Amino acid sequence: xxxxxxxxxxxxxxxxxxxxxxxxxxxVIIGDHPGSATPGSSEPDKGGQIRxxxxxxxxxxxxxxxxxxxxxxxxxxxxxxxxxxxxRLRDKLTGAQEESDRAREEVTALRRELGTLQSDLETLRGQxxxxxxxxxxxxxxxxxxxxxxxxxVQPINEMVAKLHVTQxxxxxxxxx
Length: 176
Prior knowledge:
Helices cover 69% and strands 6% of the residues. By secondary structure, it is mainly alpha-helical. The chain has a three-stranded antiparallel beta sheet with strand order 1-2-3. The protein is rod-shaped.
């Protein structure tokens, strides 16, 4: 038996009305173009054709039918799994897009909050610098006031010392 696959070849049924022939009307020729084949052989002739008997044709048909069934089984298993994978990936993509959208909104909110906090920080820095300059002014004013008071206290202390020396004996006697 001759089993060979010709993927681009065609099956040609020889017409029974084609002149006087010695081959069977059920013979099938496999080849690129219909032409003459040597009757009773399964060898290719000059045109690249192979003459097949009805038994060989039946076996080839059965083989093709098996291939079709196997292909249908494979496709029957493969297509649903591909569709399930596709749906799973679509669901995963949708979830990732939703998560991305949430993250984008959160980033936007955080950027707004950061802008507000930076504005508040600049305001506080301005207030700090103002208070620092005010503190320096108050410190300077207090320093001058203490200096003036110490200058005023010195003559008072001298007067108290003089009064204390002259009035000290009378105070002591009065306290006794």
